[in-house]
Amino acid sequence: MDNQFLVSLTLILITFGLYIGIAIYNKARQTSDFYVAGRGVPPIFNGMAIGADWMSAASFIGMAGTIMLLGYDGLAYIMGWTGGYLLLTFLLAPQLRKYGRYTVPEFIGDRFNSHTARVIAAICTIIISFTYSIGQLSGSGVVIGRLLEVDARIGTMIGVVLIAFYAAFGGMKGITWTQVAQYIILIIAYLVPVIFMSLQLTNNPLPWLSYGGIVSQLGELDRELGVSEYFAPFTNGTKWQFLALMFTLMAGTAGLPHVIVRFYTVSTMKAARWSGAWALLFIGLLYLSAPAYAAFSRFILMKQVAGSPIDQLPAWTQSWVNTGKLQVADTNGDGTLQWSELIIANDIVVMATPEIANLGVFVIGLVAAGAMAAALSTAGGLMIAISSSFAHDIYYRVMRPNATDKNRLMVGRVTIVTATVLAGLVALNPPGAITQIVAWAFALASGTFFPALLLGVWWKRANAQGVIAGMLVGLTVTLSYIFAAKYGGFTILGIIDTGAGVFGAAAAIISIVIVSLRTKAPSQKLQDEVVDLRYPEQMSYKDGNVWIDK
Amino acid sequence: MRKIEKSVADAYFREKNMYILIYLAIWLGVSFGIVLFAESLQFTIFGGFPFHYFMGAQGSVITFIILLFVNAKVSDKIDAKYGIDDKANEVLSAGKTLDH
Known about the structure:
The complex is a heterodimer. By secondary structure, chain A is an all-alpha fold. In chain A, 73% of the residues lie in helices and 3% in strands. Chain A contains 20 helices and four strands. In chain A, the strands form two sheets. Chain A has a two-stranded antiparallel sheet. Chain A has a two-stranded antiparallel ribbon with strand order 3-4. The termini of chain A are far apart. Chain B is an all-alpha fold. Chain B contains three helices and one strand; from the N terminus they run βααα. In chain B, helix 1 (6-36) runs antiparallel to helix 2 (51-81). Classes of the chains: A mainly alpha, B mainly alpha. The interface between A and B is large, with 76 and 64 residues.
């Protein structure tokens, strides 16, 4: 057991203790004033909670690495994952807040007055959240694997136990304040290394201003090596792939069930708008820094690691080779490690960079704690979305309407444990890099929920038959495209699996419109309820008129 | 409960949605628009950033954040103009989120 291990473990244990403490403290208080009028999480804190819920292992661990390897083409993730908040906050969140249901399947089931739609929405929630959690577990595997210097697969198994335990026993209620703490930990852990690297490389403590110079130097280095420039657009895929991926991530963001739920914890539509704004500000802090992280690590690797003798590589390389995520091989046998002989997995860049830049044991431990916070908070949110879909929307609302509270809670917990273990089994041999797996979850959300919610809120003529057809068609098209592109080599305009959402969303919107128009309009009451969502709480729409409550 | 003139109610709806459409047009421009023309926008700006890269890595994100805050502020103003009181909203929506 070395020093690094002890420091990292201590930091992780301290932060875990903090989360558990906050959860216990809030649970005791919240039961008493749960139904008190005006209870609501202030938007600024809700923004942080959304940030932690949102920023997963993919954002924290995977994104910078993806940008480092893809260059400009990786920026589709930055724009897609932030731009989606505009769709969500402008078009969906305040309206869904006014409707006042707890889960997305519940909104769909009640808005369209259909148990079939409810069950399909619940199944979609489970599929989306399950896919997403494979990415989280694979991410926690990378962190734990590095920490214990074991294969990432063993790390994943340990992660499964941790997350199942955390979500099943800790996360059922009152997780907002825990997530606020998790946000603070993860953002500090992300910013500290990138600020230090900026100081080391450019003598400027503000990476956001300084890395432009590094980006242009990377372009020069690439030209010398004869590879395409770091910032050259569309070298790793077509322009249409970039646009499709960006759309998929945006529409998926607006339709992710576990994020939408967070907008119900505020008091009003107004608070929902402000939550969206604060959330993106807090998320933006990390997203604006990820490209700096990517540029700095690539620069250090190209300048300091590539070109050194193979038997004099820095010590950090060995511990990463052990996790199976880094390969260094002197393939041409000249005794020197060339840039092309270094194979680095996207998913280790953020974790490895503090070591690459020689930032010391404390910073490395901090990054490990931050990465665990990111994976845990998102996995917690996802597992709750899965269990509420099953235990609440399917089991309680459809199968057993007279089930007791205790019974439902038990079903919820069993669901969480089962889902985590199953996702863990898939994550043992992850079918892609973390950001790629997560992009599939977004593709599924943009092919199912985005069209259903968008038209459900803004088009009163949309009916149950339409939305059922839309979700089924969207799901089928998205899934088929992902499989056909990944395993069959089928593409349209060079759009690969991660951009599948654009086809799913288009097919779903067309299906909802056509089927709705060809079947009976929803009842007047349902249509009135939809028009009502366009006005603030104090205004209500009834019998063709708008009324104000004074 | 007091009935609102249809013209007033429609004006409220129109005013709110007009702004949303403007924001969405800007959103489309700084993301999809810039990407569409990325090859011809590679000139260098401050600090050595190629412009297309800067917009993808920072410019668009900063624009998105600003748009969300502008929307929150402007919507509050519109609400106030039409006599919406946020305290009353809170009371009306309280308890509407069911706890499961």
